[in-house]
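Q: Could you predict the 3D structure of Phosphatidylinositol 4,5-bisphosphate 5-phosphatase A?
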Amino acid sequence: PRPSPATTSRPGRAPRPGPPACPKPSPASSSPAGGITVVTWNVGTAMPPNDVTSLLHLNTGETNDADVIAIGLQEVNSKINKRLKDALFTDQWSELFMDVLSPFHFVLVSTVRMQGVILLVFAKYYHLPFLQDIQTDCTRTGLGGYWGNKGGVSVRLSIFGHMVCFLNCHLPAHLEKAEQRKEDFATILHMQQFEGRAASGILDHDLVFWFGDLNFRIESLDIRFVKYAIDSNILSQLWEKDQLNIAKSTWPVLSGFQEGPLNFPPTFKFDVGTNKYDSSAKKRKPAWTDRILWKIKSPSVGLGAGGRRPSQGVLSVNQLCYCSHMEYTVSDHKPVVAIFAVQFASKADKPPVEIYVADEWSRPEQAVVRYKMAVGFHRSSWDWIGLYRVGFRHPKDYVSYVWARSDDGERGLEKQLCAQVMFSEEALPKGKGEYILGYYSNISSSIAGVTEPFQISLPRSEEGSSPTDSSGSSSEEEDDSTLVLLAPKSRSPSPGKMKRHRSRSPSLAKFQGLILRPSSRDRGTSRSPSPQSRRGLPGDIPTIHLPKEELGHRGAKAKEPGRAADSQEGSSFYQTVREQGGPRCVSTDKPLARADPRNLGLLPALRLEMVDQAMGRRRESVDQGYPCQRMSPTSPLGCSTSPKEGSSP
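A: Sure. Here are the predicted C-alpha cells for Phosphatidylinositol 4,5-bisphosphate 5-phosphatase A:
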C-alpha cells in the first residue's frame, strides 16, 4: 500500500521566502504498485442516488486504497433539454462523483462524453504530476456510425511512464446481435487513434482496461434454468454458455483480454427499484451484460506503432475484487466494480515541475513560490500556478492563481530552469485553512507539479473597510457596469462542507428586467469542468443588459454621459469573484488580469452592462471603423493573444 501523504517524501519546502535559488529537494517517492479501481454502470437515464461511497470502495482501508479510479457510465439521460443544461453546467452524475471523491483527495483528471456514454478518470492529487500525455477519443457505432447511443469513449494517459488506456463501450443489445457486437468492437479499436508516437492505437498501450455495457447474453439455456442456477448459487453452470466467454476463445480481436471469475449474479435485467429480475411481459433472460476486462501488452511484440518500444519489464496486474452491488436499484442494471493492484515495471520518480513553498503563510509577503522545471519540460507563456483548497475537485477548481513567469524575466528562467513568483495580497484567501499549490501546464493540459498541504493563516479584513470588498467605496468610485458572474460551484468548498445540490442553474430571478444576449461564438463550446475542454478558447461570453435605472444605486459616476465610450479607451474592466472574505473587485487594466484560466473553455460566464453603454460603444466602434479584436476569453476589448507584461489594449 502507498504511504500516507504526510509521510511520503516529495519535493521539500523552503523554510522562508528568499531569493529564487534552487534548493535540492528530496527525491519524489511513490509506491511501485498502484491501485486502480474500474466501475461500469448502465444507469438507465435515472437520476443519481444520494451516495456512492460503497460503490467506490472508499472505506476499505489502506490495503485496498486506490490511486486511480475510472468510472464508465452508459445511458445517462441525453434528451435535448438535459443535454442543453449539461452543456452549460456539469451533468449531475459527474457532480456526484466529484462531490464524493474530493474529500478522499481524488481529482478529476479527464472526462469524455458521447451522448449517454460518459467516462471519468480520477486520481489522487499527489499523483497528478506523473499522469501525462492525456488524450480522449470517441467512436459512434449507432445507426451505422452516425448516432452515439452506441459506441465507445476512451481516455489514455501515461501513468508513471507507462501508457494506459481506459475504454468504456456500449455495444448493441439482444441475444442474436453477438456478431454485431464483435464488428462494433473491432471498429472502435480501428477508429480510435491518438496523437504522438507513444501508443497511437488502443492495443498499442502497455495496459488496456475494456469495460461497459457489452451486452453479451447467455445462450441456449432456458430462462427457468438460468433463474434456478442463480437462486441455487451454481453460477458456474452458466459460464460456458456466456457469449463473451465463448468469444474470448474464438474471436482473434479478443486475444489476450483477461477477466476475473463471474462469482456474482447476472447484472441485467431487474425491475427498477428492486432486486427482482424482469417480471414484465418481455421477461428478459438474466445476463452478465456489464463486464470489466484488461489486457497487458506482450513485451515480445518489439517495436510498437510509431517506432515506440514497450516499457522495460512486464507489467503485473492482480485483480483483488470483481463484484456487483445489488444495493443500487435506480436502474435495471447493477453496477460492477473491479479493483486491481498494478505492479509497474519501472516508474518515473521526479515530477516535471518541483515547487517549493514555506510551511505557513501568515503574512502576505510570505506568499512566495519557487519552482524548478525538469530539463526538457516544455513550458508555455500560458502556464500558471494555482492555489487550491485541500479537497479540490478538478484542476480549474482553484482559489486564486498567478502566471508562471520568473521575476527575473524569461532569460533567467530559460537559463536556470528555476523561477520565483509571488501571490498578491488581494489574491490570498483570508482566515485559516490548508492549501495546495499546483503548476498547470497549458501544453499538456494537466498539472505538472504539486506541493504538500501547507497552512495559510491570514487575518480577516474588517467588514466594510476591506480594499477587496466590492460593496465598499471602490465600487462607488469606479464604473462597475460590466461584471463577470462565475457559474455556481466554480469553486469547491472544503471537504467537510460538500453540498448535495448539483447542476444548479444560475439564480437570475433576483435581477429584474435583465435581457440575455447569447453570443454565436458560444455555440459548441464545452462548459463542463473537464480537462478536455481546456484545449480551445471560448468565444464571447453572453451578455445581460440592465436598464440604467436598475444600476442607479451603484453611484453617481455610473450615470455620467459618455462614460461608456470613454471606458473603451482607458477605464478599467472589472471582475467580481467570490472570495472567502466576500466579493472583491479586481482591476484588469493589464491583459494578464483579464485572462482568467478558469474561463479558458471551462466555466460559463455572463457579462452585465447598461443598454445605453453597450449601444454607445457599438455605434462608436462602427463610426471609427475600429475592428473588434479579443484580448482574452473574459475581456470584450483588447488585441493581445499572449499574456505579455506591458502590452496595452
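Q: Anything worth pointing out?
A: The mean pLDDT is 74.
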